[in-house]
């Protein structure tokens, strides 16, 4: 993996951790919040996506539209599982489990189905990242924090992460060479699928805009930017390497969870974070 691609994925990890911290602060809004930040992301990408579509023949072909519909639906499932997890458990449980389950499934399918063959250093790095994440969640937080729901919803979120990572990695290499257009379509589909639900919850939408409007815009911006960087990286490096490397965001997320939400057991979990960083180094060497 080149230094440039490594930098893209690590920057995406920082943005990803930041938007998840913001999303945790909006954990009482559920699917309305998922609708709102999907819409915000789509609106922010409308101008650049429109320019690409207007100036590039085939940028909005039927295969691209079909792929956008699929990934939009997958991201709806991902967002709903994630926000449900944040409503029921600590971020320091949900986030590591989700980010850990995703690359395990992604790498396994990329190797078994897509025929990718990462080097042994990369495989060892992925294993180290998964082991580090296991350490991160091994110790139950003080104060009786809920672990079970966090594990369940974290695993469900991880399954969607694996699904959209594999699909999107193939899509941006086979059908959708312009990640901005592809990501814009995904946001549009996400917003459209959840609009009926938002219309039934107008009072909650109004409260969200009034109390967390800035959070919606921030999450829309950071989530779109983070995943755009990942899509570009997947055009330049194997999916089985990009997916585990994204999980360095876990370390950032844990530190912020302790500082902002006073979640417990930071010392024990940072030991697992060190293992995640070591795994990242192995992937870069692989």
Automatic annotation (TrEMBL):
Compartment(s) where it occurs, according to its Swiss-Prot or TrEMBL record: Cell membrane
Principal subcellular localisation of the protein: membrane
GO cellular component, one term: plasma membrane
InterPro entries: EamA_dom (IPR000620), EmrE-like (IPR037185), Small_drug/metabolite_transptr (IPR000390)
Membrane topology, as annotated: Multi-pass membrane protein
Keyword Cell inner membrane: yes
BP terms from Gene Ontology: lipopolysaccharide biosynthetic process
Name of protein: EamA family transporter
């Amino acid at each position: 993996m080149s230094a440039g691609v490594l930098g893209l994925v690590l920057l995406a990890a920082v943005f990803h951790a930041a938007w998840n911290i913001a999303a945790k602060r909006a954990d009482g809004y559920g699917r309305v919040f998922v609708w709102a930040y999907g819409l915000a992301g789509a609106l922010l990408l409308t101008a650049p996506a429109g320019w690409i579509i207007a100036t590039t023949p085939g940028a909005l072909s039927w295969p691209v539209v079909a792929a956008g519909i699929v990934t939009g639906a997958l991201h709806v499932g991902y967002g709903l599982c994630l926000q449900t997890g944040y409503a029921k458990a600590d971020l320091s449980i949900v986030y590591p489990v989700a980010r850990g389950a995703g690359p395990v499934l992604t790498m396994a399918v990329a190797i078994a189905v897509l025929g990718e063959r990462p080097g042994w250093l990369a495989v060892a790095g992925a294993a180290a990242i998964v082991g580090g994440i296991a350490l991160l969640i091994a110790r139950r937080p003080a104060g009786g924090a809920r672990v079970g729901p966090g594990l369940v919803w974290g695993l469900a979120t991880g399954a969607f992460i694996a699904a959209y990572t594999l699909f999107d990695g193939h899509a941006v290499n086979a059908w959708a060479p312009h990640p901005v257009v592809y990501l814009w379509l995904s946001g549009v589909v996400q917003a459209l699928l959840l609009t009926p639900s938002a219309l039934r919850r107008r009072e909650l939408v109004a409260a969200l805009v009034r109390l967390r409007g800035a959070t919606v815009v921030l999450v829309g911006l950071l989530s779109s930017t983070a995943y755009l960087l990942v899509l570009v990286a997947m055009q330049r490096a194997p999916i089985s390497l990009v997916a585990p490397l994204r999980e360095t965001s876990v370390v950032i997320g844990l530190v912020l969870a302790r500082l902002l939400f006073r979640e417990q057991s930071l010392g024990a979990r940072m030991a697992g974070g060190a293992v995640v960083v070591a795994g990242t180094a192995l992937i870069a060497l692989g």
